[in-house]
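User: Acyl-delta desaturase. Structure?
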Amino acid sequence: MVPVYLWNDTWTRAIISQAFIRYILTLNAVWSVNSIAHAWGTRPYNKNIRPADNDFVNYVTTGEGYHNYHHEFPWDYRSAELGNNRMNYTTIFIDISAKLGLAYDLKSPSAELIKSIILKQGDGTHPMLSEVPRLKSD
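Assistant: Predicted structure:
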């Protein structure tokens, strides 16, 4: 209605631009998870499987681009190992639902399990591996 009444646009052009094009872009973003994220990206949790973590897909789908993590820990409700829920609106929604009592029995792996998987099976690209342990000074 805004394009028609405020910008003097036609109903046909308004419907095509506001409904159909948006729908097509949304579908392609969702489908990119199973195409782009199975072809390109890093494999910090398991280098032996095809799914990858892809920042572009994560940006376009607002949090669903960590596909290597998702395939390694399919039972984790978060679908990504993010302590700050960076761009992961699905996890934020589930967390809010849990606080309201609408979601329960949320499962996620322990930090120790994630670390052991990264060290055993990962491709070495996880940020945790770039952290240099500091020696205690006397």
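Residues 11-35 form the longest helix (25 residues). Residues 113 and 119 are 10 Å apart (CA to CA).
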